[in-house]
Fold Galactosylgalactosylxylosylprotein 3-beta-glucuronosyltransferase.
Amino acid sequence: MSIPRIASLQQQSISEPPPPPLYIITPTYRRPEQLAELTRLGYTLKHVVNLYWLVIEDAEEPTPQVTKLLQKINVPFSHLVAQMPAKYRKNKVKPRGVSNRNRGLEWIRANASDGVLYFADDDNTYDVEIFDEMRYTKKVSMWPVGLITKFGVSSPIVKNGTVVGFYDGWIGGRKYPVDMASFSVSVRFLLSRPNASMPYKPGYEEDGFLKSLSPLKLTEIELLASNCTEILVWHTQSKKNPNAMSLDMGKYNNTNLVHLRNILV
Ligand SMILES: *[C@@H]1O[C@H](CO)[C@@H](O)[C@H](O)[C@H]1NC(C)=O
C-alpha cells in the first residue's frame, strides 16, 4: 500500500506549482547574542519551502561572521546593511530595526511581485506552521504572540470570526496594538500602497506601518492560528550577555582561543 502512495505524492509535488514565496525580513545588529539567535532562526527557516531571507544589519558593513553563518545555513538569503540615521542614535529609547525593516521593504518593492512578507526578529521562537499559514495572506494576516508583557500574550480579540479589539499589555493610543511578529502582509497589497513604511517612533513602529497600509478595514484582517486560538510565535528574547573579555595574548597566543575570541563580541 505505501509504495503507490509515495509514488503518487512525488508525482503531485513535481506537477504542482510551488506555493507563493515568503519574504522574511530580519533586522539584526552586532551584540553577544547575535550569532546564537541567527543560528536558531536560520535552522527554523530551513524547514520552510520557497522562502527568501532578508537579513539586514544595522552596521556600516556586513559582519563577516554573519555572512559566513548565512552561507552555512544555506537558506536563500540577501545580507544587507541599513544604519540607523545618526539623529536617532543619541536618543535614550532608540527606534531599533526601523532602518533595517524599511530597507527590507525597499528590497521587496524592487525585487518581488507576489507572495507575502513577514518581519521575523531574531529573538523570537517560531512554530514552522505559521509560515505555511501566512503564505496565503491576501492583505494582512494576524495571530497571537506569546510572552508579551504581563498579559503573557498579545492577540487580536476575536468574536464570531472577526476582530473586535486587541488584547495587549500596552495600548498607548495605538490603532493596532500588536507585536512586530504578529502579522504578515501580501506583497501585492504592499505594492498597492507605494508610501507604506515604518516610522522612526519607538513603540509605534507596528502601528505606524499598519496605518500606512490604509485603507484597511479590521474586517479584512485574516485571522490565522485557528482564529487566534493557538500560539505559534513566542517573543522568547534571550538574557543579555556581557561582552566577552579581551584575551590575554601573552598567555594564549597560538591557541584555539584566538579563533574563538574572534567570533565573540
Ligand atoms: C473561524 O471562525 C469563523 C467564524 O466563526 C469560521 O467560519 C471559521 O471556520 C473559523 N476558522 C477556523 C480555522 O477555525
